[in-house]
Amino acid sequence: MTRVLIVDDHELVRTGIERVLADTEGIEVVGQACDGEKAITMARDLAPDIVLMDVKMPGIGGVEATRKITRSNPDVYVIGLTASGDNTFVQRLLQAGARGYLTKGTSFEEVVRAIRLVASGQHYVDPTLASGLLVRDPQNSSNPFDQLSDREMQVTLMIVNCQKVQEIADSLFVSPRTVNTYRYRIFEKLGVRNDVELTHLAMRHKLVDVTD
User: Fold this and answer.
1) Which of 210, 204, 156, 202 is nearest to 183 (CA)?
2) How many domains does the chain have?
3) What is the pTM of this model?
């Protein structure tokens, strides 16, 4: 039996996936988490075989949660799940230790297939994204966010999700001054002057799900 933890900040998505998996032979949903922090705790306490991890969530986000989960328990395999097909997220998630990546437009049959493949020790990347990963050259990328470090990207996602400096500092266990230092570096690298311009740039490059 493959034990699955579902992580997504939308209850409707979590519930929909759980209902489908509940009727699937050989798969058991052991829990749901609404953010990265809860995912880390539940992965430790419930020891699932697979974590279906939404990438873009409030708080520390799916990439950092994936990194913490896979470092603390290598036997837990993470499959990324997001509405965006942007290869920036795919690359960062795989580098964080994920074994697979799915878009939310994927059929439920393909989700089940991905779970079974990853649970057996294989890797899985949505076929619509695989070719982009093969040809992607970070040095010549047209996506300006590719030049950000993982921490800078994490702070960027928190900013564009309307989190205040103090909230970001609390989530990352750093000082507000440190957060502002990251903000300065991000603005400088991306050529933006404020949070609004940063958000508009993120929307153009599909780092923000405008349907949320």
Assistant:
1) 156
2) 2
3) 0.74
The count of residues in the chain is: 212
Residue 189 placed within a domain: yes
**What percent of the residues of the chain are helix, what percent strand, and what percent coil, each to the nearest 5?**
55, 15, 30
Spell out the residues 6+ positions from residue 170 whose beta carbon is closer than 8 angstroms to its own: none
Per-residue model confidence as pLDDT tens for the chain (212 residues): 999 999 999 999 899 999 989 889 999 999 999 999 999 999 999 999 999 999 888 778 898 999 999 999 999 999 998 776 556 677 788 888 999 888 888 888 889 999 999 999 998 887 766 555 544 445 555 778 888 888 888 888 888 878 899 988 988 889 999 999 999 999 999 999 999 889 888 878 777 655 54
* CA dist., res. 44 & res. 36, Å (int): 12
Asked, for residue 210, whether it belongs to a domain, the answer is no
Same domain membership, residue 11 and residue 47: yes
* Residues 68 and 163 occupy one common structural domain: no
Assess contact for 97 and 123: CB atoms under 8 A. Answer: no
79, β-bridge pairs: 52, 100
Asked whether the beta carbons of 42 and 14 are under 8 A apart, the reply is no
Domain that residue 125 falls in: 2-135
- Cα–Cα dist 154/45, whole Å: 25
